[in-house]
Amino acid sequence: MTNRQEEYLLLFAVRSSSGGCIANASEEFGVSKATASHLSTALEELGMIRKSDYGRIELTELGYAQIMEKLNRAKELETWMVSGLGLAPNLAEHEARRMVVTLKPETVEAIIRDWEQPRQAQALVQDDFFSHLTYGVYQLPFHVWKKDSNEPSMGDQGFRKPAILVCQEDGCSVFLFPRSFQYRLSTVKARRHTGVLERLWYSLSGVWHESPEEESGSRMIPGEALVCESGLDGHIAKLRIRVRARVPVFRMPESEADLVFLLDQLKLCNESASTMV
């Protein structure tokens, strides 16, 4: 396989859950649909992928066996570039794919090994508001605002409310519960499409960290990532997030928004953390 074919195979592997297709590949690599179609046909002839009647592309067992090691390495490199270098997640994903197919394996291993070496972490002290809370589970109302604005974001409808705040001896954590949302293009008569959250990152000390999906479907945010403020509206906590949503038919760009938690409306629950999150 050529480097280009491997890079396409990696893209289809990463996007398989969101319906990878020729149009996605064409847009991602900046080539015509004819060129993307030609490369995907070559992969299909090699037995690496299969195409559905609707144009969706899925990897075969042979395809996953061929690419799995590089796929895992690409994910590790992506984490390094987002958390260590501060790159935007979509750029990090693109660069990670390119690196694992063009760099020698020992070079990739050296980068990952250096990133994974233990580092002396700086202690992060949570805001006094959280440190004085009684241990337990709380309901925490919140809004999703457009970045640096007081206007509601489209993402406001993409989460079940309220959030859940769990305070334990080792610190506090916030759990968000994504749900499907309705999206419509700017035209008045445009058909509504159902979207779902695919990936979520949060900013901590200016560095992006991904919040993986928990078994319950929730996304966990450490309490130290929240920035507490006091003002005319009372006590709030803010958090900058970056999201990638999946909507059928077209690809939505990654976007940033601000989560605003209403601390004065915090309510202690009787349930245990295991039943809530």
Which percent band covers the strand fraction? 25-35%
Radius of gyration equals 21 Å
The total tally of domains equals 2
Low-confidence spans: pLDDT under 50, at least 5 residues? 118-126
Could you characterize the architecture of this molecule?
This protein has 277 residues and is of the alpha+beta class. The chain has two domains: 3-113, Winged helix-like DNA-binding domain superfamily/Winged helix DNA-binding domain (Arc Repressor Mutant, subunit A, Orthogonal Bundle); 128-276, Immunoglobulin-like, CATH 2.60.40. The protein has helices at residues 3-14, 22-29, 33-45, 61-84, 89-102, 105-116, 128-131, 273-276; strands spanning 49-51, 57-59, 136-140, 142-146, 159-168, 171-178, 181-183, 193-204, 207-210, 219-222, 227-231, 234-246, 255-262, 267-268. The strands form three sheets. Strands 4, 7, 8, 9, 11, 12 and 13 form a seven-stranded antiparallel sheet that branches. β5 (159-168) and β6 form a beta hairpin. α1 (3-14) crosses α3 and α1 (3-14) packs antiparallel against α5. The radius of gyration is 21 Å and the shape is elongated. Mean pLDDT is 81; it is low at 118-126.
